[in-house]
Amino acid sequence: MAALSENMLTVNMLLSLFFLPGTLADDCGNIIPTLKIITPNNMEALSGSCLQIPCTYNTDNPTYDSSKTIYGIWMKGGVNYGTDRDKVIFDSSGSINTFSLNITGNLKEKNCTTLFPNLTTSHTDKYFFRVENGDYKASACADPLQITVKESPWRPRINISDGDLKENQSVTVTCSAFTPCPQSPPELTWNLQQDSLRQTEKNTDGTFTTKIQETITLSDTHDGYNISCSARYPVIGGIKTEMTKVTLSVSYSPRNTSASISPSALVSAGTWVELSCSSRAKPPPSFTWFRINKHGATNVSVGPVYKFNSNEEEKFYCVATNDLGQQKSSVILVDIRDDQSSVFQILNILKIMGIVLLCTSIIIFECWFRFSKKPKKEPEEPTYVNNVMVTKAS
Ligand SMILES: *[C@@H]1O[C@H](CO)[C@@H](O)[C@H](O)[C@H]1NC(C)=O
Ligand SMILES: *[C@@H]1O[C@H](CO)[C@@H](O)[C@H](O)[C@H]1NC(C)=O
Ligand SMILES: *[C@@H]1O[C@H](CO)[C@@H](O)[C@H](O)[C@H]1NC(C)=O
Ligand SMILES: *[C@@H]1O[C@H](CO)[C@@H](O)[C@H](O)[C@H]1NC(C)=O
Ligand SMILES: *[C@@H]1O[C@H](CO)[C@@H](O)[C@H](O)[C@H]1NC(C)=O
Ligand SMILES: *[C@@H]1O[C@H](CO)[C@@H](O)[C@H](O)[C@H]1NC(C)=O
Ligand SMILES: *[C@@H]1O[C@H](CO)[C@@H](O)[C@H](O)[C@H]1NC(C)=O
Ligand SMILES: *[C@@H]1O[C@H](CO)[C@@H](O)[C@H](O)[C@H]1NC(C)=O
C-alpha cells in the first residue's frame, strides 16, 4: 500500500498507453503525473525586476500526507529528479537555491506561490514544480510553466467604460499596466488629473494589474483629445518606461450654427441671393432653411446652401440637425434696395445741376454782354476815321 507513488504511476502509465495515447506531455516520459499545479502557464517578466508566480497544487494520491513536512522543488528546462539533479534550481529544504527563489505560499495549504527576484533574459525557460512529502514524491510534469523575460516593458492599456462616447456622458477612463512584480509595481502617469489614486489589484488568475482611474464628463472639447498614459517600471539600476495613447471620439449636437448671405444683405429686386449655413457637429449635421412669415416659419430648402431670386424683403434662418440634437442660426434679413427713391434722388441732382447750369450761363452771358459793349464804343470814336477822311479831303 505504501509503495512509491512513482511506481504506481508507471503501472497506470502502461494502462493509459493503450487508452489515452498522446495525452501526456513529453516531459512526463512514461509517468502519469499524480501532481498537478495551477499557474498561468505562460508568464512574462521584465528583466531587472521580479516575478511573482501564483501557484497552487493538488493531488489525490493517498500517500500525500499534509501532516508530514512538505518540500517544494522547482526545476528549469525539464524534469529530472534522480541521481542527476542538474535541472533543480530550488529546493525548499534549503539545499539548492540557484536564483534566490522564495516560496511565499504556504505549502501546507497547497499554495506554491513563488517569488522570482531579479530576472534576466537567460531565465526564459520552462519550469516544473515537484513536491516531496514523506513517501510521496511527484513532479507536475504535465504542467510546465513557461516564463519569458523581456528587456522592454508592456504598453499600459487605456480603457473607457462606455464604447459609444457622447457629450454630457460620464465615463470612467482607466489606465492599467501589467504587473508581474507586485512588490515594485509600475508608476502610472497620464494627462488627465494627476492625483488619480494608484491601485494594484489581483486578477482572477492570481497575477496583478496596476491601474489609475478617473471619471470625466464628456464635452465637444474632448473630441479628438489624446489621452496618453505612461508606465514607469522600477528595475534594478533604473526605470523602464512605456506609454500608450488613445484619441477620443466624442459625438456632440450642433453648435456655432450660423447663416451667411452672398452677395450682400441689401440687393436689388430680382437678383439671385445665396444663403449658406455652417455648423460644428459630430456626426456631421443636415441643414434645413426656414422663411419667417406672418404665420410662423416655413421649410423652404434642405441642404447647406439655399439659392433664390429675391423680390421682397424676407427673413430666413437655418437649423442644423444631427442624431444628438439641433441648433438654430440667427435670423438673416434679405433687404431689397428701394430703386424708386434713388431715381428721384438722381432727378433732384439733375434739377440742382440744371439750376446751377442756368445761373452760370446767365452770369457768363451777362459778362459777355458787358464785354462786347466796349468794342462798340471804339468805332464811335471818330478821330482816326476822320483823320483818314481828312487826309483824303486834303
Ligand atoms: C521569503 O518570503 C517570506 C514572506 O514574504 C519572507 O518572510 C522571507 O524573509 C523570505 N525569505 C527570503 C530568503 O527572502
Ligand atoms: C498563496 O499565498 C500567497 C502569499 O504568498 C497569497 O497572496 C495567495 O492569496 C495564496 N493563494 C491562495 C489560493 O490562497
Ligand atoms: C540581478 O541579476 C544580475 C544578473 O544576474 C546581477 O548582476 C545583479 O547583481 C543582480 N542584482 C541583485 C540586486 O540581485
Ligand atoms: C473596459 O472596461 C469595461 C468596464 O470596466 C469592461 O467591461 C471592458 O471589458 C474593458 N475593456 C477592456 C478592453 O479591457
Ligand atoms: C492626437 O494624436 C494624433 C496622432 O496620433 C495627432 O495627429 C493629433 O494632432 C493629436 N491631437 C491633439 C489634440 O493633440
Ligand atoms: C462656438 O460657440 C461657443 C459657445 O457655444 C463659443 O464659446 C465659441 O467661441 C464659438 N466658436 C466660434 C469659432 O465661433
Ligand atoms: C423640409 O422639407 C423637406 C422637403 O419637403 C423635407 O424632406 C424635410 O423633412 C423638411 N424638414 C423639416 C425640418 O421640416
Ligand atoms: C448637453 O448638455 C447641454 C447643456 O446642458 C445641452 O445644451 C445639450 O443639448 C446636451 N447635449 C445632449 C446631446 O444631450
Structure description:
With 394 residues, this protein is an alpha+beta fold. It folds into 3 domains: 19-150, Sandwich (Immunoglobulin-like), CATH 2.60.40.10; 157-247, Immunoglobulins (Immunoglobulin-like, Sandwich), CATH 2.60.40; 253-339, Sandwich (Immunoglobulin-like), CATH 2.60.40. The chain is built from 3 helices and 28 strands. The chain has helices at 5-19, 339-380, 383-393, and strands at residues 35-38, 42-46, 51-53, 56-59, 71-76, 88-91, 96-97, 102-103, 114-116, 125-133, 136-139, 145-150, 157-160, 170-179, 187-190, 199-202, 208-217, 226-235, 238-247, 252-262, 266-267, 271-282, 286-293, 296-302, 305-310, 314-322, 325-328, 332-336. A hairpin with a 2-residue loop joins strand 10 (125-133) and strand 11. The chain is rod-shaped. The chain starts with a helix and ends with a helix. 25% of the residues are buried. The model is unreliable at 7-24 and 382-394 (pLDDT under 50). Residues 166-168, 253, 324-325 line the site of one 2-acetamido-2-deoxy-beta-D-glucopyranose. Residues 166-168, 253, 324-325 line the site of one 2-acetamido-2-deoxy-beta-D-glucopyranose (NAG).
Detail the topology: elements first, then pairings.
Elements: H1 5-19, E1 35-38, E2 42-46, E3 51-53, E4 56-59, E5 71-76, E6 88-91, E7 96-97, E8 102-103, E9 114-116, E10 125-133, E11 136-139, E12 145-150, E13 157-160, E14 170-179, E15 187-190, E16 199-202, E17 208-217, E18 226-235, E19 238-247, E20 252-262, E21 266-267, E22 271-282, E23 286-293, E24 296-302, E25 305-310, E26 314-322, E27 325-328, E28 332-336, H2 339-380, H3 383-393
Parallel strand pairs: 2-12, 21-28
Antiparallel strand pairs: 1-4, 3-9, 5-6, 5-10, 6-7, 8-9, 10-11, 10-12, 13-14, 14-17, 15-18, 16-17, 18-19, 20-22, 22-25, 23-24, 23-26, 26-27, 26-28
Bound molecules: 2-acetamido-2-deoxy-beta-D-glucopyranose (NAG) (8 copies).
